[in-house]
């Protein structure tokens, strides 16, 4: 079955709305929900370097100072949002933090901004406070893991940042790299960045109309999922599917904490440090039952026969030629 799939060949359009004349560089704001380069954020630096060095795009980076997955479109509305400057270095983007903006030092490749806040907050501050009127396109990601189906997409900080941007009437794309295996071979990083940029450019040049869209009757945002599979290395490449988002649900997300002693959690964006310290004491009902919980690993029992044909989750399953997604599809949906 090959429902809704087609092979695309990405060639520059002669009618491209890409910036031309005196400034040929697309002005991009890059953000994410995984934070600065590291174990939990392995992709952002490579994509940044590909967009800036190989494509020549003008890319500003404003990201959370730490991992902020599963936070959706939340904004920080209490307290003060503090930021610092980040200077990534080759080859992996690991860098140094500075309280003040300064000139690049040897080995540093750019100046980024880290904000102690949520992805949606980062997007809004970047668009309206840091770079007002200077951004053509927001790219949120690449996320470490796929963002398919409504239940998980609506929980995603990656899509949350893109949604925040779209609500500011800026073209927005959420980008996610999905895989089932825990360890992704680094040889797949570069092909994923190359394919991502080609798809993003194609979308930019052929941005669809939507009469209900907030920005001049356009589609508000796109979500792209790319499987991190060996098919990225083949000459044929991956099939590309336009999909609808599967409207699913999830239930049990938390479990009682097994430790008998309370484990304080970091203060959330709407909780001061003093409040967090006070609330870190474990509440106990008169029955003696602990009210201490932790997020549990989400395990979904996905029966391929139950997933609607043509949805994003169907594209993922349909492309799964085994546990390594040997015949993976790339899938997209417009929101």
3D architecture notes:
Helix content is 21%, strand content 20%. The protein contains 7 helices and 13 strands. The longest helix has 17 residues, at 189-205. It is globular. Residues 1-18, 262-286 and 320-328 have low confidence and may be disordered.
- SSE series: EEHEEEEHEHHEHEEEHEHE
Across the major sheet, the strand order is: 1-10-13-9-8-7-2-3-6-4-5
Taking the sheet with the most strands, its summary is:
11 strands, mixed
> What's the total number of strands?
13
Q: Give the DSSP E fraction (strand runs of 2 or more residues).
A: 15-25%
Helix segment count? 7
* DSSP helix fraction: 10-25%
* Rg from Cα: 21 Å
- Which residues sit in consecutive blocks of at least 5 with pLDDT less than 50? 1-18, 262-286, 320-328
* Spatial shape: globular
Task: Classify the secondary structure makeup into a structural class.
Answer: alpha/beta
Mean pLDDT: 81
Pfam families: SurE
InterPro entries: SurE-like_Pase/nucleotidase (IPR002828), SurE-like_sf (IPR036523), TTL (IPR027746)
Domain Survival protein SurE-like phosphatase/nucleotidase: 28-250
Organism: Somion occarium
């Amino acid at each position: 079955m090959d429902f809704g799939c087609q092979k695309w060949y990405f060639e520059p359009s002669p009618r491209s709305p890409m910036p031309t004349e005196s400034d040929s560089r697309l002005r991009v704001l890059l953000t994410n929900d995984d934070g600065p380069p590291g174990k939990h954020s392995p992709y952002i630096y490579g994509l940044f370097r590909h967009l800036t060095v190989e494509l020549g795009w003008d890319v500003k980076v404003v990201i959370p100072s730490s991992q902020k997955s599963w936070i959706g479109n939340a904004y920080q509305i209490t307290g003060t949002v503090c930021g610092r400057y980040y200077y990534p270095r080759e080859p992996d983007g690991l860098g140094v933090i500075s309280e003040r903006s300064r000139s690049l030092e040897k080995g540093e490749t750019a100046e980024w901004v880290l904000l102690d806040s949520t992805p949606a907050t980062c997007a809004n501050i970047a668009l309206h406070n840091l770079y007002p009127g200077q951004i053509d396109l927001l790219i949120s990601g690449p996320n470490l893991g796929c963002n398919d189906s409504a239940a998980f997409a609506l929980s995603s900080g990656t899509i949350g940042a893109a949604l925040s941007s779209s609500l500011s009437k800026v073209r927005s794309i959420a980008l996610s790299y999905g895989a089932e295996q825990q360890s992704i071979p680094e040889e797949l990083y570069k092909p994923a960045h190359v394919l991502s940029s080609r798809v993003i450019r194609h979308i930019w040049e052929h941005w669809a109309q939507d009469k209900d869209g907030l920005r001049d009757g356009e589609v508000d945002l796109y979500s792209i999922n790319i499987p991190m599979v060996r098919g990225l290395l083949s000459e044929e490449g991956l099939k590309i599917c336009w999909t609808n988002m599967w409207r699913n649900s999830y239930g049990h997300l938390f479990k009682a904490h097994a430790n008998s002693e309370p484990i304080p959690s970091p203060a959330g964006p709407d909780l001061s440090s003093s409040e967090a310290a006070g609330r870190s004491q474990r509440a106990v009902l008169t029955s003696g039952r602990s009210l201490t919980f932790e997020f549990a690993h989400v395990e979904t029992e996905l029966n391929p026969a139950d997933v609607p044909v043509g949805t994003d989750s169907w594209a993922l399953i349909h492309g799964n030629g085994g546990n390594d997604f040997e015949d993976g599809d790339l899938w997209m949906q417009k929101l």
